[in-house]
Amino acid sequence: MATLVLPTGRTFPLEIAESAGARRRGLLGRDGVTGALLLSPANSVHTVRMRFAVDVAHLDRELRVLSVRTMRPWRIGRPRLRARHVLEAEAGAMAGWGVRRGMRVEVRTHEPGGPDEE
């Protein structure tokens, strides 16, 4: 697990899908997500066989938001050329968090056995 940190200082739980299998699986088979899921590397997503709509933010290599949109189930998104990562959350979450184009987000990873674990 990791933490998504917004410029406002707000934080949210974050899962990171770095392996090909984890990126392919994404949010499939789930009924929702707590916080967000970061697909890395990735420049596009689809919602085929998804059970719920998602907010999708394309991020560049510096984690700057290139675009934010909501995708209903059974849609295929077009690749974003400058995107290196895709952030997914339940539909409406990113608007509520204030995520918008041009903002830079931060990802804090938690090391096993570190101060965040007991």
Explain this structure:
Helices cover 9% and strands 32% of the residues. It has 2 helices and 7 strands; from the N terminus they run ββαββββαβ. The protein has one domain (2-105): Protein of unknown function DUF192 (Jelly Rolls, Sandwich), CATH 2.60.120.1140. The mean pLDDT is 93. Strands 5-4-6-3-2-1-7 form a 7-stranded mixed beta sheet. With 118 residues, it is mainly β. It comes from Streptomyces longisporoflavus. This is DUF192 domain-containing protein.
Q: What secondary-structure arrangement, pairings included, does this model have?
A:
Layout: E1 2-5, E2 11-17, H1 20-25, E3 36-39, E4 54-59, E5 65-71, E6 85-90, H2 93-97, E7 106-109
Parallel strand pairs: 2-3
Antiparallel strand pairs: 1-2, 1-7, 3-6, 4-5, 4-6
Mean pLDDT metric: 93
Number of distinct beta strands: 7
CATH topology: Jelly Rolls
CATH superfamily: Protein of unknown function DUF192
Structural class by SSE content: mainly beta
Helix content range: under 10%
Write the H/E string, N to C: EEHEEEEHE
Strand percentage lies at 25-35%
By CATH, the architecture is named: Sandwich
Count of the domains: 1
Question: Which descriptor suits the 3D outline?
Answer: globular
The poorly predicted ranges are none
**What's the story with the biggest beta sheet?**
7 strands, mixed
Q: Measured on Cα atoms, how large is the radius of gyration?
A: 14 Å
The top-level CATH class is: Mainly Beta
- Count of DSSP H/I helices: 2
Instruction: Give the spatial strand order of the biggest sheet.
Output: 5-4-6-3-2-1-7
Report how far the terminal alpha carbons are from each other.
15 Å
Organism: Streptomyces longisporoflavus
Protein name: DUF192 domain-containing protein
Pfam families: DUF192 (PF02643)
